[in-house]
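Researcher: Please translate sequence to structure tokens.
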Amino acid sequence: MRSSTQHELLDRIFGDPNTKQGLKFFTRGERNKVKLREIGEDKNEIWCAKRQRWLRARPEEVVRQLFLVWIQETLRYPLTRIQVEWPVQMGEAAEKERADIAVFSDHACTDPYMLFELKKPESKEGLEQLRSYLNWTGCFFGGWSNGNEYSFQLREEDKTTKKAPYKYRTISRLPKLGEDLKDILKPLTYAELQPVPDLRALIEQLEHDALANAGVNAFDELFKLFFAKLHDEFQPKTKPTDPVEFRVPVGSPEDVSRRFNDLFQAAKQRPHWGEIFDEGEKLKLQGDALKLCASAIEPFTLARTDLEVVDAAFEYLINPEQKGQKGQYFTPRPVVKMAVKMLNPQDGEKVIDPACGSCGFLIHTIRHVQTLYGWSREQLYRYANEHLYAVDFDDRLKKVAKTMMIIAGDGKANVHCVNSLDVREWQNGTARAIGEFSKNVRDGDFDVVLTNPPFAGKVTGKTQLAAFDLYELAMTGALKDEEENWEDETGEDNGKKRAARKVAGMKRDILFVERCLDFLKPGGRMAIVLPQGNLNNLGTRGLRAYIDNRARLLAVVGLHVNTFKPFTGTKTSVVFLQKWGGKSGGPIKSYPVFMATSQKSGKDNGGEYVYKTVAGHIVDEGGTPITQSGKSPAIDHDLDEIAEAFVKWGKEQGLAFLRTE
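Model: Translation complete:
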């Protein structure tokens, strides 16, 4: 019988390849240096080099043995200075607890130097337990990890009393053999900053550890720190070997506050960055909370962190319940990538998202043109500043979008807080008057519109609604909203009776269809996510006739019901249109339409992402196990195949925007 490989044994121990990715902390081949064996059906053991015996290979034990390898090879401490299950007496009357790993400053193991509290993957507990161990033993250094997320801690004493209560700060690394506190607190260089493996997990940790009792809004204050961090990373004339400015200084709480507030104020002085915050706004985070948050962010780079990781964290920071009430949902990135590929934005084309959210469509437009043309960062900067525009009425989403665009490569970021459905702001020049847009940004200027408008809520008020042709249709009864209250009225028009409707309001997603068509120049194209009912309800046939009169229907892609879970189970479709006129010609009566239905959304019934696996291993987009590549896992969906099928079909149909020459 063939013996199982190391990877197969790990899969068996953790039971699920998704869970095994909880070992992402170990990037230096540690997985191949622990000894595993199978002793029967569903029974596996792992060798403990310290205890010199085989142990039941439970997930938490695997994490501990991997850390034993890491401590010896990365921190360079010999096995003679290491103990496992080391007893900690926490008070005279208390029973002894046991630290998972203890590292000592002497070979006799009498002077504990650092302690580790380790958990199985997915576990979030244990940080407070680690700190209590440090309190009772007098250790200064500690490490917590579940094999994926980690936190290195420094216990700081009051310099006067040197007694409890102790304070803690996150440090970027633990001391190697022969190093001391000065080495650890030495400023990192820009080259030493690492991408954030899981920014959402880091934010969750900070919310629990530092922000729970800080009396501040987590979103607002963390965004200020993120902006200060980005400012430091984007400072001109810095060398990779220069020490970073975003670091916790040695000094009083006032010194700490001064450093980070100065960085935040400097970030606001950058062209177009300060538009996000009020002129007099300052950091409200103070004291230990600021120190904990800043020290946790300090060792990482946001500029070189995967945008999917940053996006997931910002989606978490925006209150999901609040967004759900407004019908606003972050568009899953497989849907975004599909839409961008199908519409194929090109150099020189103006692109807008009038309900931008976190700017996913524009970020992937940047990625698309970079792949298409092989542009440098400077060329991408030019393209984004001259051709990409984003609008959202929600001020928080504007902050998210602006940050994402800065990280993606657009230092200016044409992201603006304007109500796209208030036509008066555009026609009367209100938006331009307040500096939101340059003078040449008007209706009919754009080549491409990509958007996922909010579904919930209505636009009310005749003054605003009167600007829409669809409102006139609703008034005549040609367009009906099943949810709205209306009544028939009679009147005389040149001696003939006519029917009219009193329409109190109209759904926003319906009005966005008209606004997006208005944004487009003749021949321009758009992709819009719409509730399925707009495409097949009897009452909305007037909307479909209106679309047919103004644009060619290129494609309809029905999305799986899980696509927007856990926020909503609304059945949706992506509708692709090309406005009549321009090189695409005038209206034609009969033409083929591309139709597809997604069978794999990339999410399960609970709204959690499902990742691609090969031979039981989660893989990246290239098909390589992420435990080897260190890249993000590939979501298991079929929207890439649908996009490729459309491109092939579109070329056969002679769609000019899909030509590659």
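Researcher: Any highlights?
Model: The domain at 318-602+637-658 is CATH 3.40.50.150 (Rossmann fold).
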